[in-house]
Amino acid sequence: MVGLSPAKAEWDRPWRDETRALVIDAYEFNPINWKQLTSDKRIGAFINKASDGMPPAWSCRGLSGDDQNLCKNRWWKYSVTQELYMTRREMAKTLGLKWGAYHLGRPGNPREQADHFIDFAKPEADELIALDIEDNDPTQWMSLAEAEEFARQIKIRLDRYPVLYTNGSTAAFIAQNKETYPLLSRLQLWYARYRDDLTGVFPEGHWDKYALWQFSSMHNCNKRACPYRVSGAKDDIDVNVASMNVEDLRKAWPFDGLVAPEPEPLPDAGALIAKIGEEARDAVAEIGKDVAALVEPKEVQAGGETVPGTLAAAYGPAVHAPVDPLKLLTETALEEKRAAEHPMPVLAAVTQGPKTEPAPPADQPAANTQAIGTIGQLRDEMQAVREILSDEKVDGGADMKMPAATTSPVKGAELKSRILELMKAAEAAVQGVPSEKPVEDGKGEERAELSAPRGGWTLLSGFAAPERRIASAFRATR
After folding, report:
1. 79 with 167, same domain?
2. CA distance 49 to 76
3. CA 20 to 30 Å from 320, out of 57, 195, 226, 388?
4. How far is CA 461 from the centre of its chain?
5. pTM
6. Domain count, the chain
7. Is residue 260 in a domain?
8. For the chain, give me the number of helices (H) and strands (E)?
9. C-alpha–C-alpha distance, residues 379 and 276, integer Å
10. What value, to the nearest 5°, has the Cα angle with vertex 326 and ends 320 and 328?
11. How far apart are CA 73 and CA 454, in angstroms?
12. Are residues 230 and 355 in the same domain?
């Protein structure tokens, strides 16, 4: 290793560096001489196979002949394997080695396999846990999608993540499809590759380094040649090198973190709805006093007529509202997250001059064609209402300022009367009664305009632009 650059040393036979820690992993039937094995002070940990797929059937009742013998043999092997696992764990930890266990993933329910692994291995907080995906072949091994679920179930049960053991081609595939496997691609990597040099092969750019590299096994170790021979074990034992020394390995163990931060979870829909609902109520309440000052809460006179409860009708729940309020709140909550860059002003159509409102799509209610995009936008609409209903402008009798499109001012008393007329029409719309405001039909004759309710509210086209602005402001606050 003398003369090699650090980057080169990382990928070219790092096990030759005597400062690097080694980790042994074994099947249940690998013979181990623990005294000889622990004489090698570079060996800092031992990982043992735990579970394999799902456990065998616990009962062989109803079977006979070879089927019965095979069933009994599988259960015997399972029982012996678990007992051997527990014995090895106590031996290794007593001798000062860090301990780990892995589950061999098979096709089938990944959550049940995760539960089975935990029941089998009974992992303690300082023990490494790993998922072994031998290859990207879902006919023989757990699929990558199932592996995602396995890892999530481990997180749910143990509040930590497993290490991912896999080969070079599968690791590269996961790295290239990290959007499809957002959790699997961020697990610590236990890399199985039996080459002397990983330069250009290891999936750098995604995993910057390995947690462990399995470099020696029965595939490349025999009596003639072996990358590293372990005292107290046969040539078929698996050997791994860490990217650190033994002391640092003990600190990093059990490698249960992620190589990249976990993405923020999607906001809880119920919490968003509650938040938006609360903010909407607060925003409406901000102008409650301004509106109350304009119209008496019980009865007011408008053009010699009595208009009972107009304010309550305008701000109370719509009697024939065709839109689900919970659905509206949900849409508003989602819009708060995704549509702030493209707001749809409620008052845009009236403050910028007359505009023909487009017909809504066939599958979309008409009430949604002018939706409030965000709470901030709703507050802007509230401010517009304040400007319209300001006491100084209305009760004081002063001229009210209108948009630039308006050619003549409106006196406060006159405006108040017109607002009451608007609200009366609004009340009728809320109740589902057509308004009776006479308009010319283009032939010099008057007819009663029938304005159908839209989501419990009506914008009357017969009013002038400033008055439509008032109607739109009330519609926004409603």
Report:
1. yes
2. 17
3. 388
4. 44
5. 0.57
6. 2
7. no
8. 16, 12
9. 12
10. 80
11. 73
12. no
